Amino acid sequence: MKTRSLSVGVLLLSLLFSAWLQAAVELNENVPETYIVKKGDTLWGISGMYLQKPWLWPQLWDANPQIDNPHLIYPGDELYLVWIDGEPRLRLRRGRDVKLMPDMRITPLDLAIPIIPLDEIGPWLKWSRIVNAGEIDNAAYIVSGSQGHLLSAPGDRVYGRGNFPDGEKVYGIYRPGDAYYDPITKELLGYQAQDIGNATLISNNEDEVTELEVTRITEEVRITDRLLPMREQVLDASFHPRAPDVPIENGFMIAVPGGVTQIGTNAIVVLNKGARDGLEVGQVLAIYQAGELVFDSIAQANVQLPDVRAGLAMVFSVFDKASYAIVLKSDKPLQVGDKVKNP
Hints:
By secondary structure, the chain is an alpha+beta fold. The chain is built from five helices and 22 strands. The longest helix is centred in the N-terminal third of the chain and has 23 residues, at 2-24.
């Protein structure tokens, strides 16, 4: 009896999984049978053209013999739609000749189309960060500029005091910015560390006053600016947008760096959820706007309409209590305070 029950259970799970796969790769209406990749395209954009749920794009490229790595698709390549066992798949014809000969061939990887518009988030991946109060308060700081200057530029020497960890030679220069609070619990989630530039250690970091050379700036370096060891983040070749693994509750867009309130496609936003909430780099969230409060003339009472889905955002940099995300799609003007939920 147990064996029979187990077999029936496995069969039901298989049927449910097959049904889920069919729903997961549901195509949009009137998708093109063929498409020529253009400069400026992204895998996200192409998948959104074909799929109702573009974050499930790896399934569209699954079992594709022409493409070992779907990240490497170039302008001029032709994509065409086929069906395998009732499932849609994209196939590829290269848009240029490739000579096969016993010689080394270097592929210009920088010409391949990206998954998302990385030029929008590149600076944020390298320099921007959210820090807690202790991290910024205990960081080393600039106590003086060369020859007593109050402002410094690339090539100038500056002098720092405080904690310089052993082995760290390159530091980011930051200025404490806005404080981020959870709109529901009012908890302090962290501070924006405003990117000012970089500096390289020159003197011994065990000295009371440490000498550094400024190597990059976004604006003039000032006395009291903070010095933090570099935290670089990159998106590796296995990166792809996907749905969160856990339910995201009471998630909100709480800020836009730079103080902007109106938000559109490709805007960078701060979320009130981070690593402790289960968020990871690459996860996609749906953006919702609160439903209107209307008056029911029959019941003679106010009633709250359901939240309205308004866009999609993808997390690209995660900190403990907060995250940076890029808006991949906006169906209407968005604003600080809009909700984010599982897609």
